């Protein structure tokens, strides 16, 4: 169990051989966190505290935030949403599930990811002696050095301003139906 007191995003786990998945814990504004999960060109941003998830396909998005009208069903990433949970998995044996009621997320890897993934979650090779392996393959002296080595961005106490993408017509309709305070479907 690690206490990540940092205000930085950290790489939790990544397949460094076949690049089949990446899981990043992001620090958001207002002391909340989100999970960034990438599988097969599909990105799922999970916000456990807000009980929402956003899914999009990286290959169908151009540089100016436009999501082209392509179905996510055509790729090999599956998602399932129930009242308080979301589960995302791929055909390579990676599964990420979050239970919003208990603010708990789990990453499950099939056996063929044994020893080819790394991050704050360790090396996934059942060897206790190398769990604090750094990105350069040396071993960390302490937990602070270990967690700092897996930071994925330059960190500061000042939150960077991110320009939001404009809403498409379809996204705007969804927002009206599911996010507006007066909507019975919220």
List the helices and strands and how they pair.
Blueprint (H helix, E strand, L loop, with lengths): L9 E6 L6 E6 L5 E7 L2 E6 L4 E6 L19 E5 L3 E6 L3 E6 L4 E6 L7 E2 L24 H7 L19 H10 L8
Antiparallel strand pairs: 1-2, 1-10, 2-3, 3-4, 4-5, 6-7, 7-8, 8-9
What's the overall average pLDDT, rounded?
Answer: 77
Flag low-confidence runs.
61-74, 156-162
Q: Whole-Å distance between the termini? A: 35 Å
- Helix tally equals 2
Structural category: mainly beta
Strand numbers in spatial order across the main sheet = 5-4-3-2-1-10
Q: What is the number of E strands?
A: 10
Into which percentage range does the β-strand content fall? 25-35%
What is Rg? 18 Å
Q: How does the overall form come out from the CA principal axes?
A: globular
Largest sheet: 6 strands, antiparallel
Helix content: under 10%
Q: How many discrete structural domains?
A: 1
What's the SSE pattern? EEEEEEEEEEHH
Organism: Columbina picui
Pfam families: VWD
Protein name: APLP protein
Tell me briefly what this model is.
The chain has 186 residues and is mainly beta. It has helices spanning 143-149, 169-178, and strands at residues 10-15, 22-27, 33-39, 42-47, 52-57, 77-81, 85-90, 94-99, 104-109, 117-118. The radius of gyration is 18 Å and the shape is globular.
């Amino acid at each position: 169990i690690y206490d990540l007191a940092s205000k930085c995003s950290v790489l939790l786990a990544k397949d460094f051989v076949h690049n089949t998945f990446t899981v990043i814990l992001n620090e958001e504004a207002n002391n909340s966190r989100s999970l960034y999960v990438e599988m097969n060109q599909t990105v799922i941003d999970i916000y456990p505290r807000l009980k929402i998830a956003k899914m999009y396909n990286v290959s169908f998005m151009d540089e100016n935030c436009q999501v082209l009208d392509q179905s996510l069903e055509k790729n090999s990433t599956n998602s399932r949403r129930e009242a308080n949970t979301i589960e995302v998995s791929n055909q390579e044996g990676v599964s990420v599930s979050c239970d919003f009621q208990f603010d708990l997320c789990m990453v499950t890897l099939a056996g063929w990811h044994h020893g080819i993934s790394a991050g704050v979650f360790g090396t996934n090779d059942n060897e206790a002696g190398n769990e604090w392996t750094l990105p350069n393959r040396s071993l960390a002296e302490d937990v602070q050095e270990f967690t700092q080595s897996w930071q994925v961005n330059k960190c500061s106490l000042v939150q960077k301003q991110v320009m939001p993408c404009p809403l498409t017509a379809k996204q705007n309709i969804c927002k009206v139906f599911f996010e507006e305070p007066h909507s019975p479907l919220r």
